[in-house]
Specification:
Length: 442
Amino acid sequence: MNNILYKLSNVSATTGIIRKFSVSAAKNANFSCKLLVVGGGSGGCTMAAKFARKLKKDSVIILEPSSDHYYQPLFTLVGAGVTSVAATRRDARSVLPSAAKWIQDSAESIDPEQNVVKTASGDTINYEYLVVAVGVVNDYGKVPGLTEALKDKNSGVSTIYSPDYCEKTWADFKNFKGGEAVFTYPDTPIKCPGAPQKIAYMADSYFTKSNVRSKSNITYNTCLPVIFGVKKYADALMKVVERKKIKVNYKTVLKEIKADRKEAVFFNTDDKSQELTLPYNLLHVTPPMRTPEFLQRSKQLVDASGFLTVDKFTLQHTKYPNIYGIGDCTNTPNSKTAAAIAKQSYVVEQNLRQTMRARGARRAYDGYGACPLVTSYGTCVLAEFLYDGVPHETLPFDQARESVIAYYMKRDLFPFIYWNFMLKGYYNGPEFVRKIINPFAK
Ligand SMILES: Cc1cc2nc3c(=O)[nH]c(=O)nc-3n(C[C@H](O)[C@H](O)[C@H](O)COP(=O)(O)OP(=O)(O)OC[C@H]3O[C@@H](n4cnc5c(N)ncnc54)[C@H](O)[C@@H]3O)c2cc1C
């Protein structure tokens, strides 16, 4: 019956009457489960797969509104014209574990005292244990002019941070005939903090190929005081920046886009009254990001910035022991990447199983994250590191060096691992490979 209701809900986007019927009928639905996973993206799908295999059928419910699942790390290469957005997408139904029940709806509120989640359609889901994996969303509205500029096909403004606009980046690359190419990095936590500069490096390579580089300037504007948070890789990337003659403005944040004049206005993080206006022919924006609104409203669960408060080692909620968090929506100080989620998934799996047995969490997440920084069509710096920016490399060579192997790992190997192992709950990061091929590394 509920399946029928949800099908009607889908149809409802075009017909108000059916929607009203389906929503009011669905209001009565009341589900219960042992484990509820809210969000079925990289982290949620991985966790649901791990537990659906272990627990009885339908003990796991996944609450996920989208019928599309994207492998987001490839959006950078979509923007650079290496692949298409279609190649990064699969039906959510084909990746979510069949042994779990998928409710295609959004969480509207979490009541951690009563162990109840309410959905946007008015259903209630009672859980014993909860994994929150709702990621972050782009906050386009924070930059006046951005939403309109992204929607305008001819604006020259795009972002690789959305399946809706990453192909526009490629179109803008091809249309660029020289002039000012401007890139940005906002002052909020973002996923894949390397991607804003990766796309600038790819722009340089493409403009060189298309013979427009000599008549163009590339400017990279970042809120950070350094090019990258881990010194070893920052040193290597500074050489890339210098070789490519990319101008870097530090502590510089996009404030507004004046699309009619093709100008981007920035502020300085030390003194917000200090403005910089850059004219652009191509503007690539990394939008500000935040957690979904319903999570921000769940005040008992989040910090002042709206991120789920979990212990940075155990990934267990700091106040509610039956709640765990994984991925971009938590307040752990690691780099928000799919690579981090692979490692976190093992820790959450082990610790949540302990919690289910009424024992204390015992595994610790070490902050592992990885960032394959493509520097051209064919080279990549493969940054891997732990909490506090401590390098932790898998391959038996200096990964700060630009390498061809790392480029093909990013393009071909990592997507293969993601679809075939990680989302099925069988990949916990490269530690086992590291022990074999790089056993003497610190
Ligand atoms: C351009 C780009 C480049 C990247 N490059 C890399 C890279 O090279 N390497 C790397 O490891 N990582 C990279 N990443 C980061 C990586 O893709 C993310 O860190 C990862 O996918 C986050 O997983 P998640 O589960 O936390 O969130 P997501 O995968 O975003 O999933 C969150 C899910 O929650 C759902 N949701 C939202 N609100 C609700 C709600 N109210 N109720 C229920 N569900 C909800 C959403 O529909 C979504 O499916 C990149 C990302 C981008 C965009």
